[in-house]
Amino acid sequence: MAAIRVLVVDDSLMFRNLLVQGLNSDPNIEVVASAGDVYAARDAIIKYKPDVMTLDVEMPKMNGIEFLRKLMPQYPLPVVMISALNDKVFDALDAGAVDFVNKPDNLNRAQLDIFLKQELAAKVKIASTAKVGKLKRVDAAPVGGRVSIAGKDRIIAIGASTGGTEAIFDVVRKFRRDIPGVVIVQHMPPGFTKMYADRLNNQCEVAVKEAQTGDKVVQGRVLIAPGDKHMRLVKVGNEYQVEVKGTDRVNGHCPSVEVLFQSVAKVARDKAIGIILTGMGGDGGKGLLEMRQAGAQTIGQNEASCVVYGMPKVAYDLGAVQYQLDLAAIPNKVYSLLSK
Known about the structure:
Oligomer: single chain
Strand order of the largest sheet: 8-9-7-6-12-13-14
Number of strands: 14
Helix content: 25-40%
Largest sheet: 7 strands, parallel
Order of helices and strands: EHEHEHEHEHEHEHEEEEHEHEHEH
Number of helices: 11
Shape: elongated
Distance between the termini: 50 Å
Strand content: 15-25%
């Protein structure tokens, strides 16, 4: 198999060299060029035709987000952003980046090795399989239909990974305040999940927050698992709540979609709707199957609308997916199931 050809773009010469050395140490990756600003990056893209580009959010002359907005319509290319703890990374994902990694706070060797050889190399490999430049934003208007009285004690559980920040946004912004409580796991580093929840809260009709233990899962509210803890659904009296604890990785992830879905299968049973969206790997597939076997209705995003058709494919192949749909059709389907 040919090595993944990578262009590294970062304005710091020292950090750029560290990125090049770290990625080149992986036998499946070859850094074909590096650039210190977006104009040099543009020339390198034309000359070397890389498979993936890594790009710093903060750049001189033109920042990475502006560059992406100009680049993507003309030259769709899988891009992994390298970002400090900053909500601008979500503007980059909106502009077409596939994923991001959190730039380490300090450059000690142990932390750098984990960042370069595990986190960044893994994201580059995933990005090389991603679809870019073809996915269109769905209409922002909330969907029609009404939630029946019986539907108000339901619960909706959503899991996603690569490409999921934008996919979740496209689903949640169509929800009205009559939607039953929603619980979400999106694979994301700690710190970014709160910024993501706040961003959704400001842009959607429903209330969105990063989950804490004891938070109630109620109508019109969306809870997002924090980036370093598992989230489980529990029942206290007649109320759904979440429990946020545990840092062990499940299927390589914390938070894990599997952990959430398994708890929903156990606690909510046939009152639940499970949705699995774009992402690499198989996290959540068995949990979604448990949900379906417990009587829940289940939805998987189809291949055509996924950035990475990994998690939904695994779930579908296991028989966990009852309805396989285009991303744009999922909110309407949810309301249709709730109206019955």
